[in-house]
What we know:
By secondary structure, this protein is α+β, with helices and mostly antiparallel strands. The chain has helices spanning about 5-15, 75-80, 175-185, 190-195, 205-210, 225-245, 270-315, 320-330, 365-410, 415-425, 465-470, 500-515, and strands spanning about 20-30, 35-40, 45-50, 60, 85-90, 100-105, 115-120, 125-130, 135-140, 250, 255-260, 345, 355-360, 445-450, 455-460, 480, 490, 525-530, 535, 545, 550-555. It has four domains: about 5-165, ibrinogen binding protein from staphylococcus aureus fold; about 175-260, no CATH class; about 310-410; about 445-560, no CATH class.
Amino acid sequence: MQPFDFTAAVAVAVEVRARLPGRVEQVLQPDRFTLVLLLRTFTGKQGLTLSWHPQAARFGWSGLPPRRPDTFAFRQQVGHQVQGLVLVTVVPAAPWERVLRFDFAERPGDPPRWYLYLEIVGQYSNAVLVNGEGMVVAAARQVGDRQSRLRSVQTGEPYQLPPPRLAANPDRAEPLAVWRDRLTVLGLPLGKATLSAYRGVSTALVEGLWAQVGFSLKTDPHTLTAADWERGFAVWQRWLRAIADETLQLQATATGYGLAWTGGGAGPSAVVADYYEVRLQQETDRHLAQQLRQGMQAQVAKLQRKAEGFRDRLARSETADALRAEADLLMAHLHLWQPGLAAITLPDFATGEPRTVTLDPATTGLQNAQARYRQYQKLRRSRDVLAPLLAAVTAEIAYLEQVAATLELGENDPETLLETEAELVEQGYWTAPSRPKAKPKAIPACRRYTSPNGWEVWVGRNNRQNDWLWREAQTWDIWLHAQEIPGSHVLLRLAPQTPPEPQDLQYAANLAAHYSRARLSDRVPVVWVKPQHLFKPKGAKPGMVAYRHEQVVWGEPATVAPEPLC
Length: 566
């Protein structure tokens, strides 16, 4: 994730200062890394977000977050001290360092009473509330001597800025020759040389600056001509001039955001917020998908062990008929029993062949027969009980395998993940999340494709959508699914009295194969039926259906485009 560098901090600080002063009406903390100041400015009520997230620390104007109760002590301490005060300015706390100081006073023009320092230093990012005497009153993350040998951040101690980098400050007065020497003396490529020689620069900034003159981060500085150095120095000076004149602008790029040399676009806060909100949501989605996959794997493993136990017990119950036959033989030949016998050979009723029956010498022949009858009854009862239990566990495993396939094929789609999570909570496989529930859409956003002859093909993203496809299917449609393989339900939408064309059926079969666990195979068997031959067994879980009168077509998953075509 692209770090929030000094250039972005200056650009956003200029934008924030333009709307100040602003009275702090409320302080919110939506999560453990984010503080939102609700400010009343001359332009109305606005939210100012401060984040010390390890990968996405930043600040800037934002919308008003939902007001949910929280128990964060840091928010309570900050709110108690600065609520009702006026935020008068935001400035870098040290030259060319990503530490911002937010000053709070009784009214504009008064000396600040409180300072909030936002330290944007990667995984060590922090927010610290400091009083007018420079003492730490609260910190989002307390830092003791054991965590850092360089400095501590503890309540009641004097506040110290993070130690600066040992590099030169960019300076507009620096001559071209000195600038060039700094970048060549280290013997590093342009990118690493610039990052090592100067404070306040980042990889994204350096890459953008050198790209202006046609060079990459890996360019050898010794290959540049005098004219190249002059052009590069001009871009460097232009950047420094924009910082000094407070005219920096940001813009979105293919990989993140960077300098905008012309204005007219979105403000710096919006550019930064758009980038980090998308990336953080992606991280959240990846984390949720991983949690769900691990949870389903654990559930399936547990059920498979349970099923294996049922199978073992059923296998033992298969001896029930043999025990009864032995008991019948003993009862029919009690007159042949002798005290102390450990075994007896008797003619089998069915074959007439000799059959040896082991005996307990300590009991009578009748008692041996009765013991076998009791074992027979016990095993027969267990067989009657275990068979439906094994069937239920097998169906449960099939359902969870289907959910796991949904997670594998969903590619961390946020809506699919949330719907799958809600389904698992409803089915009792997942703990309900603490976040507010999203209202389900009336029509799920399933994948939609267009067949060669122009018919719509719908592909379910999860079991809820698979159920919806089953309910929406009309008599003339075609339902498809990879045969005996977890995957998505596919519906080929046709007009009344329209038989499916072979190329349309093949196209839909390819989709069913692609959105299944066999997507890496060359060919996958796919069943297709008319919707009237689909039915949902009583008590079946979401997405689980049965079918009859099916036909099979071979799908080719590799022929499917990676994204829906419509």
